[in-house]
Amino acid sequence: MSWLEVVVLGLVQGLTEFLPISSSGHLRIVSGLFFGHDPGAAFTAVTQIGTELAVIIYFAKDIGNLVATWFRGLRDPEVRATQEYRMAWMVIIGTIPIGVLGVLFKDQIETVARNLWLIATTLVVFGILLGLAERYGRQERPLEKLTMRDGIILGFAQAMALVPGVSRSGGTITVGLFLGLERAAAVRFSFLLAIPAVFASGLFTLPDVFAGDGPSPAQMIVAVVIAGVVGYAVIAWLLKFVEKNTVYVFVAYRIALGVALMAALAIGAVSAT
């Protein structure tokens, strides 16, 4: 892997991880179009560690409060009645689906799921679903009204992102809007829910990154740092954007990209595998 590819893919990861447009899908597309190969699911997983570090830094106060409340609640019955304690459990329980399914379907995720025809299809289909969620979701429930049932459902929504093109944030935001959550609430919970899953995935696949002729440790560190710095800026922008704007711009982008990719595949401009 060249240094140019490392820098480009680090930028792509940082720019797309938190937007509902699929970072893994974009990494696969950019690599296929400009570098002629697939960087692999392991590379994607490890670069996501950088963007999740950005989440931890940005939401440090909220995360620290959730962790502290969870530990206090283990021994204090009064704390267990708080929304913060329930929220911490929602993140923990909501992480289970993607963890279990990620292990069970590891081989498929790293092979057939990275076919560009599948990615093009999921970009379009889940773009349409995101648009429908924006149009018909009531968007009346703040983050404080999130229930354990919501957390479990959103956990399964996050698990759909194991297929490149779906989008981790896109899946959880779509389902969150259908559940009646406010747009900003759905976005914030999608960030929190991703932290344990992404770190576990990145650490689990780290040995695979350096197998064969993959990137060097120095290249991987640079990619993670670039993704984290750019991702931090994207978090700040997205949270402000969704407070006053719809997600239709992302819907249009997903559909346009998916259709363009289908056209490129059809004429043989890029290989599906």
Descriptive report:
With 273 residues, the chain is mainly alpha-helical. It is globular, with a radius of gyration of 18 Å. It has 12 helices and no strands. α8 runs antiparallel to α9. 48% of the residues are buried. It is 75% helix and 0% strand.
Topology:
Elements: H1 3-16, H2 23-35, H3 41-58, H4 60-73, H5 83-104, H6 106-110, H7 116-136, H8 148-159, H9 168-178, H10 183-209, H11 217-244, H12 248-266
Helix pairs in contact: 1-2, 1-11, 3-10, 3-11, 4-5, 5-8, 5-10, 7-9, 7-12, 8-9, 9-10
Transmembrane segments: 87-104, 116-133, 186-206, 218-239, 251-272
Catalytic activity: di-trans,octa-cis-undecaprenyl diphosphate + H2O = di-trans,octa-cis-undecaprenyl phosphate + phosphate + H(+)
EC number: 3.6.1.27
Helical residues, percent:
over 70%
Low-confidence runs:
none
> What structural class should be given to the helix and strand makeup?
mainly alpha
Largest β sheet strand count, sense and barrel closure = none
- How far the N terminus sits from the C terminus, by CA atoms, comes to 18 Å
SSE pattern = HHHHHHHHHHHH
What oligomeric assembly is this protein in? Answer: single chain
H/I helix tally: 12
Would you count the extended β strands for me? 0
Query: Averaged pLDDT, please?
Result: 92
- If you compute it from the alpha carbons, what radius of gyration comes out, rounded to the nearest whole angstrom? 18 Å
Tell me, briefly, the overall form: globular
